[in-house]
Design goal:
The chain is α+β, with helices and mostly antiparallel strands. Helices cover 27% and strands 24% of the residues. The chain has one domain: Ribonuclease Z/Hydroxyacylglutathione hydrolase-like (Metallo-beta-lactamase, Chain A, 4-Layer Sandwich).
Length: 322
């Protein structure tokens, strides 16, 4: 009570002094004149992997209503319970997109390219001081539109004009097969046509790589099929540092890391995706490797811990200096 009394007396004294010299008394309203920003600062984040510098570049996010079949083998009540456990709103989802750029010291390598003109990748790439023309290599994990859309701008020009474009051979064989496109449901053909829009005019220049190969200095491909037939993750190693870029081996961690047996509606082969996810997370948990997920909360990196029949993501701690 004494502390409250002193605070009140001090406040009254200050108000009296202000009045004595003709100054208006300050009220809370006097401090509420600045307009709210209503938006975030440019979103990029850097961290070191050995001598490599990795820049996570946000392509923004989108929020949407939770579909009943978003998780094919869990009902809405189970999915909402997972959202509540993660302190998130129920009946809706927010999906984030985080490609990375790896600076090896001699090369700038972009892994995946975001959604394209509808996203924020190019703006945040510029904010990070990275010129798309300086990118020497673009590596693609799989051919879904939110990973390849940024290869072209709104006028269909190539964004990374000086870069070698590298894609998984299995993914290329699947999506560029006209017979498979024609056999696909009508609603799904837009994805196939988008692949042709992106790669059609540069098909002869695209480098196709196999799984389990070093495709760039310090970067090895890892076959992680299921999300798509040729879905590929990447093992990035420099000195004692290691980062596993898992792309879409899982989408939102509070769903599919915690519950690796859940099947997201976007997986082409859900059972294979689950097998892949469990195998990948067993390896990462055992090795205590850093891992980054394309659709995880920004900056989308952390460590995986085995937890019962599932896993737990421990997000990386933000550091101000590298």
């Amino acid at each position: 009570m004494e502390l409250n009394r002193r605070t009140l007396l001090a406040t009254a004294s200050a108000a009296g002094a202000a009045a004595a010299i003709g100054m208006p008394a300050l009220t809370p309203a006097a401090f509420a004149q600045t307009a709210q920003a209503g938006k975030q600062a440019p979103s990029f984040y850097r961290y070191k992997i050995g001598s490599f510098e990795v820049t996570a570049v946000s392509d923004g996010s989108n929020s949407f209503k939770l579909a009943d079949n978003f998780v094919r083998n869990a009902n809405r009540d189970e999915v909402n319970a997972a959202l509540r456990a993660a302190f998130l709103p129920t009946d809706q989802l927010t999906n984030q997109y985080t490609p990375v750029v790896v600076n090896t010291g001699s090369k700038l390598i972009a892994i995946d390219t975001g959604r394209g003109p509808s996203g924020e990748y190019l703006a945040n790439l510029s904010a990070a001081g990275i010129d798309p023309k300086a990118i020497s290599t673009v590596i693609i994990s799989h051919f879904h539109g939110d990973h390849i859309g940024g290869l072209r701008d709104k006028d269909q020009n190539l964004v990374f004009a000086n870069a070698e474009v590298m894609v998984p051979a299995t993914e290329w064989a699947h999506w560029m097969d006209d017979a498979k496109m024609n056999a696909a449901p009508e609603a799904a053909r837009g994805a196939w046509q988008n692949v042709r829009r992106i790669f059609g005019s540069i098909a002869s220049k695209v480098t196709r790589f196999d799984a389990d190969k070093e495709i760039a200095p310090g970067i090895k491909s890892i076959a992680t099929p299921g999300h798509t037939p040729g879905h590929t993750s990447f093992d990035i190693v420099s000195g004692d540092g290691r980062l596993v870029y898992q792309a879409d081996a899982s989408i939102m961690p509070y769903f599919f890391v915690r519950n690796p047996g859940w099947h997201v509606m976007f997986d082409s082969d859900p059972q294979q995706a689950e097998t892949t996810r469990r195998k990948l997370y067993e390896m990462v948990a055992a090795d205590r490797s850093l891992i980054t997920g394309y659709h995880w909360p920004f900056p989308a990196a952390g460590h995986i811990e085995k937890d019962g029949n599932g896993y737990r993501l421990h997000p990386s701690v933000w550091v101000p200096t590298l």
